[in-house]
Amino acid sequence: MPTTEQVLASHEAALGEQNAVKVSTHYAENAVVIVNGDTYLGSREIALMYAKLINDLPAATWRTDVAVIHEDLAYVEWTCKSATSKVEFGTDTFVVSNGLITRQTASFKIVADN
User: Fold this and answer.
1) 22 vs 10: CA distance, rounded Å
2) What class, spelled out in words, does domain 4-112 have in CATH?
3) pLDDT at res. 48
């Protein structure tokens, strides 16, 4: 069974590849993700959410600034930058069970990069 660290590393790699479907494979079928006040249920809705995020941050470079992992719980602070937009500060909290993300919260703001 993959550790929380391994699941998050694979998740981040898939996000870096800009592959929303591959990102969604890291989630349990009944996963719940809350992003900026919106709720996404299950890997299908989560894949659609990531597809929009990837579209809003095309060819972005992602950087993890802080990652604190304790057993099944992870807290991450991150930034990213694309040619047209960026996130100066984003934060996620993940719960991983049986090698899959079951719960996640995220907060960030995408802004134009002039």
Assistant:
1) 9
2) alpha beta
3) 97
